[in-house]
Amino acid sequence: MVNTEELLQMLKEIAEERIPFNKVLGLTVHSLDEEHMQVHFNMRDELVGNFMRGNLHGGVISSVLDLVGGMNAWLGVMKQMKESNLDELVERFIKIGTIDLRVDYLRPGLGKYFTSSGNIMRTGNRVSVVRMELQNDQEQLIAVGTGTYIVG
Amino acid sequence: MVNTEELLQMLKEIAEERIPFNKVLGLTVHSLDEEHMQVHFNMRDELVGNFMRGNLHGGVISSVLDLVGGMNAWLGVMKQMKESNLDELVERFIKIGTIDLRVDYLRPGLGKYFTSSGNIMRTGNRVSVVRMELQNDQEQLIAVGTGTYIVG
Amino acid sequence: MVNTEELLQMLKEIAEERIPFNKVLGLTVHSLDEEHMQVHFNMRDELVGNFMRGNLHGGVISSVLDLVGGMNAWLGVMKQMKESNLDELVERFIKIGTIDLRVDYLRPGLGKYFTSSGNIMRTGNRVSVVRMELQNDQEQLIAVGTGTYIVG
Amino acid sequence: MVNTEELLQMLKEIAEERIPFNKVLGLTVHSLDEEHMQVHFNMRDELVGNFMRGNLHGGVISSVLDLVGGMNAWLGVMKQMKESNLDELVERFIKIGTIDLRVDYLRPGLGKYFTSSGNIMRTGNRVSVVRMELQNDQEQLIAVGTGTYIVG
Predict the structure, then answer these.
(1) Chain D residue with minimal CA distance to C16?
(2) CB distance C60–D59 less than 8 Å?
């Protein structure tokens, strides 16, 4: 059996350091445990979509929601694999991929920083479904989304 | 009435130069006329999502599809506003926004370059619906999407 | 100003009695107040999709989620129109329509009866977004959905 | 190997006769071959959603699109299983299910009859993606949709 703490630390490192486009977005992973996680990023000039209003580009929002959905899908799988060894876990991890993503843009993405988290709707043997949301520094809901992930 | 050629040139300039996050993605707008347009971008290291496979980040794909959907929504509106002056057009243009976006990830985003285009399903007074797709340099379908845009 | 109780009673009557396809589904509206509502229906032979497993047809599920989304969209609008008279309310009510709907099928729709409710994500001047869910008599989550509604 | 004609005839029979809710909708399957199929149904009083305008209930539209998506997903799988025997085909057939469905409502569903067909975007080992559309008797596009199906 694998040390869960170490595994979560690896997950955080992959999300933050090993996915090049996440570095462009400047994402950091907060409060990561077996049940929850939160992604945080700061507003920066290059993340702007509308040069007149200065709000987040829709693509930044969908990128973040997709990452949060995928990480939650993985947390759901991990929970079911508590008795597995590292090889089995890695083999399962690399199979995870987004099948589809829906994003609802609720308000202009204005703020100094943004946070995103998710809730697992179902972890299946093959498919997992996660609902995500993105808030700004005023805790206003900027966007919600639903992602379907292949997990086996 | 407005010179359509000039208007399309402005649209291209806004998409390529005035949206900061589009510059991060390295997007260029090709074959833009009143009916069609195509977005083109090259694979680059910072657009990678999976460091082991080297494929496009899902967020890059959704960003591009959203832009293509929004530009097509605007082309549809422009067609209905042929008799309008520039002020009316600008007033309408700045109202356009994405309501929601669905992206279906069909194949890993592998290739030297990618192209994306869209088809308008309906241009309404308030809402337009566009279907988009993304292909790689082998003309393989990498992703499809559907976007709903507020247009009035 | 209009009596809210009467208005809610009218809404219930329209949903249950005046929408022919809802009668086919056998829907009833429960616990309807200004903030919440719940739709209830019993399993019946003609609602079956898979004759071998005896579960709900996917179309029944999406029909119910769409109704619940639309009714919640209307509750959100009503809340913003507290000072309006009946004519203004009716004029607004008949404008409501579904722009798009996403349904995630989580588990086979097995049970003696089912309930569905929703949460408003945002009530805008033109567009509202609602998240819905459907549970069976064991309170298992059968499906979730997200609907976008034109409201003005 | 199985006689394709017989298999398609079985598929038509299942869709029309063995799925109770499809009988409520009054669906018939037309022009079914290995590549294409079309579903047809007539407007009837009990399919109405808006009693004032007399248009199709949104749930009828999503029900039909889901069926068309699922049947297309199956046609895609059948094409890849040309060398298989009937047992293998049946085993695969009963695994098919809708993961999620997106429906875009473009115009009020008015007409004497309606037709629906689909295009397979990708047939994978586990997941297939289909785009569907619904037209009225004037060949106006009433709705489009995208469905994701588990196929293995």
Answers:
(1) D49
(2) yes
* pLDDT, greater one: B48 or B118: B118
Which DSSP category does D83 fall into?
A: T
Rounded to whole angstroms, the Cα distance separating A53 from A44 reads: 14
SS (H, E, C) chain A: CCCHHHHHHHHHHHHHHHCHHHHHHCCEEECCCCCCCEEEEECCHHHEEECCCCEECHHHHHHHHHHHHHHHHHHHHHHHCCCCCHHHHHHHHCCCEEEEEEEEECCCCCCCEEEEEEEEEEECCCEEEEEEEEEECCCCEEEEEEEEEECC
Kindly give, in sequence order, each residue whose CB lies less than 8 Å from that of residue A32, ignoring residues fewer than 6 positions away: A8, A11, A12, A38
What is the CATH classification number for the domain harbouring A15? 3.10.129.10
Partners of B121 on chain D (C-beta within 8 Å) are 104, 106, 141, 144
Contacts of A126 in chain D (CB under 8 A): 126, 150
How far, in Å, CA of A131 to CA of B92, rounded? 33
The per-residue pLDDT for range C26-40, each reduced to its tens digit, is 999 998 888 889 999
- Each residue's pLDDT tens digit, C130-141: 999 999 999 999
Cα D37 versus chain centre, distance: 8
DSSP B130: E
8 Å CB contact of C121 and A106: yes
User: Residue D129 is which amino acid?
Assistant: V
Q: Can you say whether the dihedral through the CA atoms of C148, C69, C12, D110 is positive or negative?
A: positive
Alpha-carbon gap, residue A20 to A27, rounded angstroms? 11
pLDDT digits (tens, 9 = 90+) for A91-100: 888 889 999 9
Beta-bridge partners for D56: D48
Q: Which residues span the domain enclosing A13?
A: 4-150
Angstroms from B127 CA to nearest CA on chain D: 9
Residue C2 above 80 pLDDT? no
B-chain CB neighbours of D122 within 8 Å are 106-107, 141
- pLDDT at residue C69 tops 90: yes
